[in-house]
Write a structure and sequence with these properties.
Blueprint (H helix, E strand, L loop, with lengths): L1 H31 L3 H8 L3 H29 L1 H18 L6 H33 L4 H24 L4 H20 L5 H7 L3 H7 L9 H31 L9 H15 L1 H7 L2 H21 L3 H15 L2 H9 L7 H29 L2 H21 L3
Helix pairs in contact: 1-4, 1-5, 1-6, 1-7, 3-4, 3-5, 3-16, 4-5, 4-7, 5-8, 5-16, 6-7, 6-11, 10-11, 10-15, 10-16, 10-17, 11-14, 13-14, 13-17, 16-17
Length: 393
């Protein structure tokens, strides 16, 4: 009985520690957003130069995602999360201290590398904990990432408004992240405990040999669906404010309200998502969530009112909230492919949609209109939802 209680306690502690890692990842990436204007002013960059510089953050993340998967598979995700978390904590305040474009670019690359690496490791580790936990927890983990996204940007702004310099505020957030990473480390699963979560290790290793195991159709299929969903999320990040400003005549100061409504709805949907996924199967969650999300896009672009556009963005956040967690859970359950191999592929394909997708939508908007481009996102979500619903179990 004592052993069983200890076993349960260890899993619960691992879930709490993993939740903390998701939280700090959200804090880290969102704390950078309010820093962008300061960096632009300090380095005297125009919009085009700033855009090119910002690509280095994405380049660092995309470059390290496959590498992070290899490191997780070889050394375990705990040590990878620990190192990546400290890299984020160290580089975050440096983003407000670099005085040259070259130094800023290098720092952004390493910051992005830390974000990409910890993203891979925490999702792989979350799947391991979920497998041991015995029920869905991925939605709540991603919900805490969304909460961190709100806390990072609002927290940095609050500290600056309180009278602290941006540099000191960033150092404060950095110290907080480092403390959370160090405090969580001992409660996370080590490599041997992760191996238990995927079943009999010898059988797993035998099945997972081969240099191109990640090319299996099932992995590419889930990755392609993630590409579509992440593209829609990237559209909200980069185009929702433009849509409200130029197509619904919203004042510039309130143009960000669409993304805020979407973010809050997604955070709430994910925090409540575990019970939804447990009650219904993943296919139902993806199918009906996809219908709601696509309907949100169509409502926003087909009606002329600001209120209906915001309602559409809220529906999008609610509908899309639990789709990606379901996809990550599916990628972590392949019997012949380790989560540390499948999840990096799926995540990399997803983030490719988030990074490259908005640029592609820009071409559609230029050729036709922005409402047409956003409608295209709705169609992609519908296709992804139906494709996952009809796939073989």
């Amino acid at each position: 009985m004592t052993t069983e209680v200890s076993f349960t306690k260890n899993i619960r502690n691992a879930r709490k520690a993993t939740s903390a890692i998701f939280l700090i990842c959200g804090i880290g990436i969102s704390a950078w957003a309010p820093m962008v204007p300061y960096a632009k002013e300090r380095l005297q960059l125009n919009d085009a130069d700033l855009g090119l510089l910002l690509l280095l953050l994405g380049a660092g993340a995309i470059t390290m995602m496959p590498v992070g998967g290899i490191l997780c598979h070889r050394y375990g995700s705990r040590i990878v999360m620990f190192v990546a978390g400290l890299i984020i904590a160290i580089t975050l305040p440096l983003l407000l201290m670099m005085q040259t474009v070259t130094g800023m670019g290098i720092t952004l690359f390493f910051f992005g590398a830390g974000i990409g690496t910890i993203d891979i490791a925490m999702n792989a580790h979350g799947v391991h904990v979920q497998n041991r936990y015995g029920r869905s927890i991925m939605s709540s983990l991603h919900g805490l990432y969304s909460v961190g996204g709100l806390l990072g940007s609002l927290g940095l702004g609050f500290l600056i408004q309180s009278g602290l310099s941006p540099q000191v505020a960033a150092v404060g957030i950095s110290i907080l992240m480092a403390v959370i990473v160090c405090g969580s480390y001992r409660f996370l699963f080590n490599k041997e405990e992760e191996n238990i979560s995927v079943g009999e290790l010898a059988l797993h290793e035998k099945k997972s040999r081969g240099s191109f195991i990640w090319l299996k159709p099932r992995v590419i299929f889930i990755g392609a669906l993630c590409f579509a969903i992440f593209l829609a999320e990237g559209a909200m990040l980069d185009w929702s404010a433009v849509f409200l400003r130029e197509n619904r005549n919203v004042e510039e100061a309130w143009a960000g309200s669409g993304y805020a409504a979407f973010s809050v709805a997604m955070a709430v949907g994910r925090l409540l998502g575990d019970s939804i996924v447990t009650k219904f199967n993943g296919k139902m969650v993806v199918f009906w969530g996809g219908l709601i999300a696509a309907g949100g896009f169509f409502l926003a672009v087909a009606t002329p009112w600001v209120s209906s556009a915001l309602a559409g963005f809220i529906l999008l956040g609610i509908g899309a909230a639990n789709i990606v967690p379901v996809f990550f859970s599916a990628a972590g359950k392949f019997r012949d492919i380790p989560p540390a191999i499948a999840i990096p592929v799926v995540t990399t394909m997803g983030y490719a949609g988030q990074l490259a997708g908005p640029a592609f939508l820009g071409f559609i908007a230029f050729r036709y209109s922005l409402p047409v481009a956003l409608s295209f996102c709705g169609i992609l979500i519908l296709i992804a939802a139906v494709a996952y619903a009809v796939k073989k179990p």
